[in-house]
Automatic annotation (TrEMBL):
SMART domains noted in UniProt: Ami_2, PGRP
Organism, as annotated: Bactrocera dorsalis
Protein name: Peptidoglycan-recognition protein
Principal location class: secreted
Alphabetical UniProt keywords: Disulfide bond, Immunity, Innate immunity, Secreted, Signal
GO cellular component: extracellular region
Gene symbol of the encoding locus: LOC105231286
Amino acid sequence: MYQIIKCLVSHLLLFTIFSAFGIKTTIADPNIISKSQWNGVESINELSQQALPIGRVIILHTAGAGCQDVDSCSQQVRNIQKYHLDLHFDDIGYNFLVGNDGNVYEGRGWDLMGAAVKNYNNGSLSVAFIGTFENDPPTDQALEAAQSLLEMGVRTTKLTEDYKVLGHRQLASTLSPGAVLYKIIKQWPHWTRRAR
Ligand SMILES: *[C@@H]1O[C@H](CO)[C@@H](O)[C@H](O)[C@H]1NC(C)=O
């Protein structure tokens, strides 16, 4: 009996040590909803390849309605793709979108150049939060998902280790990513004041 308890205790101890270690060193990848999962349409033309690793991340908001679950976020992403195709983009403009449900929605992905910010698409990863963030922040889950997406990008060498984060409004005349979200990303370690 004593042996069993001793064994259990040591296992529990090891488990605790490993979990504590695990929490410190690995942050879970975000849940990425692929284009086929949100039911997107194919791009119209072949898209330019991005030169990897990417050194700049641009944070935007979509300036439309927000969403709170996979169904409503997928609907928003389909609407945005249709809107961008109507504007004669070859595909949805963003590389990734983030929903208030805490999921990341794949746009053009890591490897293809986005069409989100004129003159800055080459060399930039565009990440758009779904909704309008002038007065209210995204959910904590959305903010965590965006951060873990960027960490995943560094780990998979899609992003440089010293990538710079900029708000859309630093590069164009726009309210995007919204006053409240802009204030939040200015606290992120990779945010930079200088656009170039
Ligand atoms: C993007 O920038 C790189 C480096 O300046 C350049 O070599 C490449 O041709 C550009 N790609 C496009 C599609 O403009």
